[in-house]
Amino acid sequence: MHYDFKTKLNKIDSQQYRNLRIPEIDWKLNEAQELFVKMVAKPRLKNNLGFETSQRSIDDIRTIVVKDYCSPIINDVATLPDNYWHFISGETLMDKETCKGFKSTVKIRQHDDEFENSPFDCSSFEWREVNAVFYEGGLKFFNDGTFTNSDFCMNYIKKLQYIHNAGNFGSGSYRLPSGVLLSGSVDCELPEQTHREIVDIAVVLASSDLQSPDYQNKLQKLNINNLI
User: Fold this and answer.
1) Whole-model pTM?
2) Residue, of 227 and 118, whose pLDDT is higher
3) Are residues 175 and 153 in the same domain?
4) How far from chain centre, in Å, is Cα 154?
5) Least confident of 60-74, 79-93, 101-115, 183-197
């Protein structure tokens, strides 16, 4: 990806931006892969189709989708894993009197919704639906007072590893602005077919920062790949 980045940022047979250092390229590549996942999986403008809009979209992020993470629900709250990034879907096990272990669909609600006051939107054992909201401590579940939620399982998108080539920089390591020491190298964990597109995004970001005269040409390539 470093080689691809340098080739695309510089003009053919040119070393116009040869002074870009490995940590700077790493930073742009990580910014690009984060933007790539957000565009594919969780765009801010909802299209009501989810991220599985096509088989290509499914394949592009399949390596960071975690299936069936389970956590007990204690005092109506389930904790989230450390590598949690975006929610995809979830279920709880509902118990009501002698009826135990019934699966229900988790519906994520906005904090300002009055869902529990509505007979059509409140959590329901009969309809196998449980409302939940995110907050700092994890995921809070609701019930109508006639049942309890015992266990929670979900599918989610995990945080991306910080890709880097620290082993080839200086003494073989460097520190991030956060103070984390990096050494060796970590490859992009997204499928290989996404790597060139991620580099394209990184090149556009770098070209913008450098006020490169061919910025618009590089930006047009993202349009060709339907990335913007």
Assistant:
1) 0.84
2) 118
3) no
4) 15
5) 101-115
The whole-angstrom separation of Cα 129 and Cα 109 is 12
Q: Do 34 and 89 fall within a single domain?
A: no
The answer to which of 5-9, 15-19, 186-190 has the lowest mean pLDDT is 15-19
Question: In this structure, are 69 and 100 located in the same domain?
Answer: yes
- Structural domain range at position 180: 2-59+159-224
pLDDT in tens, 94-153: 999 999 999 999 999 988 777 877 778 889 899 999 999 998 879 999 988 899 999 999
- 10 Å CB burial of residue 221 (0-12, 13-18, 19+) is middle
Asked if residue 82 and residue 143 are part of one domain, the reply reads yes
56, β-bridge pairs: none
DSSP 123-180: -BTTTTEEEEEEETTEEEE---SS-EEEEEEEEEEEPPP--B-GGGSTTTEEE-TTS-
Domain end (from 158, 182, 200): 158
Same domain, residue pair 136 and 163: no
Residue 31 φ/ψ, nearest 5 degrees: -65, -40
Do 73 and 138 lie in one domain? The reply is yes
**Residue ending a domain, choose from 131, 158, 185:** 158
CA-CA-CA-CA torsion sign (39, 41, 44, 47)? positive
Tell me the H-state helices in 1-96.
2-9, 22-41, 55-61
* Structural domains of the chain, count: 2
